[in-house]
Amino acid sequence: MIKPDGVQRGLVGEVISRFEAKGFTLVGMKLMQVSKELAEKHYDVHKERPFFKGLVEFISSSPVVAMVWEGDGVVASARKLIGATNPLTAEPGTIRGDYGVSVGRNLIHGSDAIETAQTEINLWFSSEELASWQPTMTPWLYE
Length: 143
Ligand code: RTP
Ligand code: MG
What we know:
- The protein has one domain (about 5-140): Nucleoside diphosphate kinase-like domain (Alpha-Beta Plaits, 2-Layer Sandwich), CATH 3.30.70.
- It has helices spanning about 5-10, 10-20, 35-40, 50-60, 75-80, 95-100, 115-125, 140, and strands at about 25-30, 65-70.
- The protein is of the alpha+beta class.
- It is built from eight helices and two strands.
- The structure holds ribavirin triphosphate and magnesium ion.
- Ribavirin triphosphate binds near residues 46, 104 and 110.
- One of its GO terms (cellular component) is cytoplasm.
- Major role in the synthesis of nucleoside triphosphates other than ATP. The ATP gamma phosphate is transferred to the NDP beta phosphate via a ping-pong mechanism, using a phosphorylated active-site intermediate.
- Its cofactor is Mg(2+).
- It comes from Rippkaea orientalis (strain PCC 8801 / RF-1).
């Protein structure tokens, strides 16, 4: 999910380009204004943390781009493409490392495990919003 800061800063294309160029397949995408309820559910794991209220307010403050990407090892690989939570310690070459300076404005969210990804896909998308397709370049990406 490209967070409000990523959308406001015009980095939607940049983020999509990096995932496409890596070889992952986009199977769902929508720009949406997030309700407080959805933001609270999405970050439920952090509900006791001091930053929770501010995080929920931020995520629901301006549109985000929610996406589902498919491919071998996509969850772990996406976390690497995204970089460490704090953009100041994220490696250059990662999205947060290249474009961010603040932990509360770190541009993008990525599911942290396959199970979490499944839960989050169900939370953010209906089945009709997901496409099942094989890009013609697949044989050039996988043995
Ligand atoms: P995300 O869930 O957004 O993909 O980020 P993450 O896994 O790298 O980090 P996580 O620990 O899940 O934290 C969720 C988001 O909360 C904000 N945060 N603020 N002020 C703080 O100390 C603090 N710590 C975390 C960040 O925006 C982080 O992405
Ligand atoms: Mg997280």
